[in-house]
Design brief:
5-stranded mixed beta sheet, single chain, 129 residues, Nucleotidyltransferase, domain 5
């Protein structure tokens, strides 16, 4: 099998985005875990994974699916504490991930708004897998 990924030469950074949440509605649910892999056009990469304190209980079905624990969230930062780092990682990137348009992007936009900030992905190309 040929490794075509090593021959990619993107003009902009690529950011793979994945997350676990406390439920499915971005208006009322929160991000509980966020993973971003930013790959620069030069090939260098930054891997960012954070468990978060969502500030709300994890719903029982979600907790079973994600194997989340109800206790211990207080030791993790809230999204408001990391939103600047997340903005820096996603700034100027094209996005890659699963269900970005319908799930991940609305959750990120909602979390930034709750943090008193804004983020836009209008200039980003979105590659859904």
């Amino acid at each position: 099998m040929i490794d075509h990924a090593s021959t990619l030469q993107p003009a902009r950074p690529l950011a793979w985005v994945g997350m676990e949440t406390t439920g499915t509605g971005s208006a009322t649910r929160r991000i509980a875990k966020l993973a971003i892999l930013r790959i620069e056009p030069s090939g260098s990469a930054t891997n960012y994974i954070r468990r978060l304190n969502p500030g709300t209980p994890v719903r029982r079905p979600t907790a079973r699916l994600r194997r989340s624990r109800r206790r211990g969230n207080g030791k993790h930062p809230k999204f408001v504490d990391i939103h600047r780092q997340v903005r820096d990682l996603l700034n100027g990137c094209d996005l890659i991930g699963h269900n970005l348009r319908c799930f991940a992007i609305p959750f990120l936009v909602a979390e930034f708004e709750r943090a008193g900030s804004r983020i836009s992905f209008r200039a980003s190309n979105v590659i859904e897998m």
